[in-house]
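Structure first, sequence second, as always.
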């Protein structure tokens, strides 16, 4: 999709990347066409079988090193998947969180034994990943988590609850942000893996009903004396969790910007199709100057957003994307996403408020972008620290 008529940067034009993009698009057409996506939304979940299919077809572990059973690609491959899911309206499938947020904690920080134990199963889809950060009383303030993982012999005993956890109903591999030393603040935070099929005391709460992103299962999780082996602390040492999170959150925030831009591009494509066909007062909606001005504004804002996101991707590929710049991308693009989709919905008139029109779903889905991954207000705090 190039509805913005903006050339792709050179690093996205390598033949292998363009061929991969085409193959991902065809995979989505086959396995996640609009009628299937509609059934996901109706059932508030993506079928578990789709995860297995994605594993079989090489869409898991895209940027994971080959030595750990991954596909040996880089962040461009993750971008391709996120864009294609967004362009084709299948972005409720939480595979990019699994690939580009959960798994990297293991291959960046895991011990050799942890990599061997978990990474191959994350690639096949045997394990579906989630990361449990948010709690009922702690959102963007990760130092404020109350969940504990206290050492007892050669085990850790986990107690606490998490909420708003993406992939929460299906995930059987959950990275839990917990306090291994509740008196040490950030230095007492560790990342502990819970394989839910192997423990007692773990339970899932409701599949939460949301304004948008309905098919992306989001859950409450409860840990009541859950015992896991001592080897399940990521990296093997306590107290490293907060630093591991801080190092990986820039990629998560860039992911959100990439996804937000792709969704807004899809909205523009749908809107252009509509205003070229729909007529009022004897002429096309597109022929009214107000429509032309509104869409000129939308295209300009999204073009600027794409240029910035492409630059952030380039920086990230070079290992130079800092937390503040990633925060700028997350906050600014998601604000623009919400603003432009709202303007585009207005051009549909009453039809824009009807759920059978894609613009309505895009409108609903956009709202959470300014909240998860750290609220946009928190992004501004992080940016302000660089002033």
């Amino acid at each position: 999709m190039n509805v913005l008529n903006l050339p792709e940067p050179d690093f996205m034009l390598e033949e292998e990347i363009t061929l991969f993009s085409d193959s991902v698009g065809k995979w989505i057409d086959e396995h996640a066409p609009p009628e299937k996506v509609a059934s996901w939304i109706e059932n508030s979940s993506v079928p578990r079988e789709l995860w297995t299919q994605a594993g079989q077809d090489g869409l898991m572990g895209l940027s994971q090193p080959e030595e750990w059973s991954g596909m040996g690609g880089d962040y461009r491959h993750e971008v391709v998947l996120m864009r294609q899911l967004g362009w084709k309206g299948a972005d409720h499938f939480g595979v990019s969180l699994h690939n580009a947020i959960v798994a990297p904690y293991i291959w960046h920080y895991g011990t050799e034994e942890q990599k061997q134990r978990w990474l191959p199963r994350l690639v096949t889809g045997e394990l579906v990943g989630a990361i449990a950060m948010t709690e009922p009383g702690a959102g963007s303030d990760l130092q404020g988590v109350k969940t504990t993982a206290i050492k007892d012999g050669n085990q850790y005993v986990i107690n606490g609850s998490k909420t708003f956890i993406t992939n929460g109903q299906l995930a059987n591999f959950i990275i839990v942000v917990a306090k291994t030393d509740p008196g040490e603040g950030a230095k007492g935070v560790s990342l502990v893996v819970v394989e839910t099929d192997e423990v007692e005391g773990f339970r899932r709460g409701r599949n939460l009903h949301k304004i948008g992103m309905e098919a992306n299962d989001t859950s409450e999780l409860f840990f009541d004396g859950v015992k896991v082996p001592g080897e399940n602390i990521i990296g093997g040492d306590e107290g490293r969790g907060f630093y591991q999170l801080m190092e990986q959150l820039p990629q998560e925030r860039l992911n959100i910007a990439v996804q937000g831009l792709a969704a807004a591009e899809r909205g523009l494509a749908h809107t252009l199709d509509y205003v070229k066909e729909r007529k009022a007062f004897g002429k096309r909606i597109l022929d009214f100057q107000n429509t032309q001005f509104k869409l000129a504004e939308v295209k300009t804002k999204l073009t600027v957003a794409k240029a910035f996101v492409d630059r952030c991707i380039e920086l990230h590929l070079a290992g130079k994307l800092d937390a503040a710049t990633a925060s700028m991308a997350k906050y600014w693009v998601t604000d623009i996403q919400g603003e432009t989709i709202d303007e585009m919905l207005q051009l549909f008139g009453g039809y824009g408020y009807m759920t059978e029109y894609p613009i309505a779903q895009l409108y609903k889905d956009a709202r959470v972008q300014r909240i998860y991954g750290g609220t946009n207000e928190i992004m501004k705090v992080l940016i302000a620290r660089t002033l």
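Margin note: The chain has a mean pLDDT of 96.
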